[in-house]
Design a protein that fits this description.
This protein has a single domain, classed as Rossmann fold (3-Layer(aba) Sandwich). Helices cover 23% and strands 29% of the residues. The chain has 4 helices and 9 strands, in the order βαβαβββαββββα. It has a 6-stranded mixed sheet with strand order 4-3-2-5-6-7, with helices on both faces. α3 links the parallel β5 and β6. α1 crosses α2. It starts with 10 loop residues before the first strand and ends with a helix.
Amino acid sequence: MTRQPDLIADVSEILLTEEEIQAKVRDLGRRISDDYAGRALTLVSVLKGSLPFMADLMRSITIPVQIDLMEVSSYGGTATETSGLVRILKDLSSSIDGRHVLIVEDIIDTGLTLNYLVRYLRGKNPASLRICALLDKPARRLVEIPIDYRGFLIPDQFVVGYGLDYGETYRNLRFVGVLRPEVYTADPD
C-alpha cells in the first residue's frame, strides 16, 4: 500500500517561513529593478519548482518584464539525487537573441543542471545572462555557478515547499521545510 503524504507531519522543521521568503523576494525584486532600470528584461523560470518564486518575484519587479518557461530534468520520479544527465523537456517559447535574461531558479545544489542550462542559453545569443536563485545549497556543489541574486544559503538538508517537491508533492506549502528522512528513505510497499 502506498503511503499517503501528510504535508505538515512529514516536515521535521520549518527552515524558512512564508514571511521570511516574501521579505527576501521583495528585496530581490527591488535589486533587480534597480540593476535593470531602462533595459528590457526576460525572466526565464525553470519549471516546475521555481514557479511560485517566479510568480512572486515578477510581481516584486517594478520594470517591464517578459517571462518564458523552460523545463529541464536531471532527476527521475522520486529520486533525491541528480542523475547528471540533463534533458530539456520544454524549451523557450520566444527568442532571447539580444535580450537581457535572468534565469529564475528555486534551488541550486550540485550546479550540474544549471551549468548545462547556462551553456545552452548562452548559445541563443542573449545580451546578458544572469542567475537569481531563491535557495543556494553550496555543500552539494560540484560545478561552480555564479549566482547574481541569492535569496538564502541553506544547509545540506532535503527541503520541500514553496515549489520544491518530493515525488511531485509538498510544492504548495507556503514555507520551506526539511522533509523527514523516513519519508524519502522508506521502502515502498
